[in-house]
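Input chain follows. Return structure tokens only.
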Amino acid sequence: MRTAVRRFDVLDDIFYRGHHGRGAAEVMQGIWRFDSTVSAAEVAFLHAFLAAGPLNRRVRSPRIPWARRYFTTGGAVAPVYAEPEPIAVDEVVAWADRRAAAPLDVDNGPAWELSVARVADGSSVITLTCSHLVSDGLGMISAARDALGPDGSAGSEAARVRWRDDLADAVALWVRVICGVVASLARGCVDRQVRAELFAALRGRHDAADQPVGAPRHRVPGVRPTAVLSVGADDWAQRVLTADATSTALTAAIVADMVARIRSAGGHGGCGAPVDITVPVAPALHSSIGSPGMLRMAEVQIMPTVDRAGSVREVADTLRAGYQDLDGDHGGNMGLGPPGGMPAELLQLLGDRWAHAIVPVPGAREALVSPLGDMGPMFDSIAGHTSTGMAVRSVTVTAPATPGHGAGEQDSTVTLRCWTAIAAGRFTLTFDAAPWAASDAHALRRLAQTTLADWGLTAQAW
């Protein structure tokens, strides 16, 4: 069956630039652990279905100037990567970090990789890694869930793109941008704040208020340290029930507490200031693999506090208001477009170099909380091997240097990021921190365990 091609949106272009040395490349990764040894042969069926599914797509450039890039099928497929030697028990996350850094090619493929490794204690770990351009976390999990299903899944063949299709897309893009620019300039005539944003952009100035408290005023080289911890799903649910809130609210309150501790440990000011947190919000129905651009970003300010139950209820109310704001004109595209209310699509007409200069770190706030939800029973086992837990995360990797500019940069502006997932009776939290916020993975793990313990939760570190 043929399906219509999906053109890039603004967020797709940002992820694409990251893979070509402008900014940092983002990949999604699922880390799946088992209590016994899973061999490469036993995941061959999963690899085959993923190769025929929606993860296996690549990027095509249009033939008409100003038409948008689009996705098509038929990218090259990497074989299952099997680690030749067992890895140490405490090296599981480090091994996953190395697999996340494996080269991916969004233009020709492979844009994803399935890997498996034996662990020294007789257990094993599987990772599924794909470019964030190809899929967001929910889409990656959806593709894997379909492949694990009784009938597997097969992808659809993309429709052929004709010359006039590119022309129509370019014309439509120009119309939207021109109308948006005129509207923004009109608002600038009567709105002083909009006018100030436009003039600041012309002078190349950036608002220091967007800089997280304690963050350095420049990029910091180095990989973002990662820590993965899990608590019993029933224990987490009981803590949420006691707080009379939601799972996302409890996670956000804990993340705000961790950020406050990072500020204090670093001797930075503003330890009691609110923490700016973004929360990706998926569409109500996520029936198939989607674009990262399908997600919308709710932004909230959370005040770190020792009033545990009360603070979580307040966070839940704040998140609810943030979700409602997405229905307004000002929600859902935060930090993704040019200043002054200019249309985000303007970036797609300016080209990669200018677009990256205007929006180098899109949507960057002090913290990110991304709840992936319950993975479902499909991830409880594979080929007769019982799962002991699953983590899902986004990994910031440095793209290699390309002609015309240097290698991509690590993002050091977001202090702390957290992804959560429920699988095999475990609630798993995956954290990563800016290099200036945590010296290494061990320091971040200690911070996370200490904070969770103070919230009455006993966490097991991976």
